[in-house]
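Hey,
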Amino acid sequence: MTATVGVVVFPGTNCDHDTLVALERAGARAEPLWHGTPSVGHVDAVVLPGGFAHGDYLRPGAIARFSPVMAAVADFAAAGGPVVGICNGFQVLTEAGLLPGALQKNRSLRFVCRPVDVQVASDRSILTAGVEVGRVLRIPVAHFVGNYICDERTLAELHAEGRIVLRYAENPNGSIDDIAGICNAAGNVVGLMPHPERASDPLLGSTDGLVLLRAVVDAAGGAACVPSGPADVVSEGVRTA
């Protein structure tokens, strides 16, 4: 049975159509979820796509966290449902408290938009389950507020629990420990700054994003098995480059 993945649309979201198409390429049935609807309906997974939710007023994700759909997303996640936040979606997840830490302005104080290499650092998430740890994927980034930060205790927990799922090969934004993506303790909520939907067709220069999106679709369909033990085997210690 084909899994259904809902893509949340906030005012200012601009990557929803790309994400819907990419998820369908990955094997899902994809449909939009309007932010003002206090339910996620019948979907098997939820994706919060990139863009500028509510114009990024105050700070990215700060207003979106209060959208009616987010209470339903939180309940869905608490019940074990797969939830992924891409770029602005990652920012929304941290503002909503579904993921730890925060995103701040890039160290360069410039918008960064280019393909980057990211390394799979853990398979303990619905985004990376079944993907070889250490594998390098070529996926674009496009953000001004993509510098991930957290306190030392949180970083230690992310390391110990294998919750750093993606790392930059060359850090484009100053994120602590080269972090490009993290997950919650259960592995069913993931945030990442790179845009896998922009690496889902040969015409886009890479199909590496489908590796991650297919893992999400598998999780939505109940086929994914997230390992229970730590798997952050490519960790090299804390880097703040």
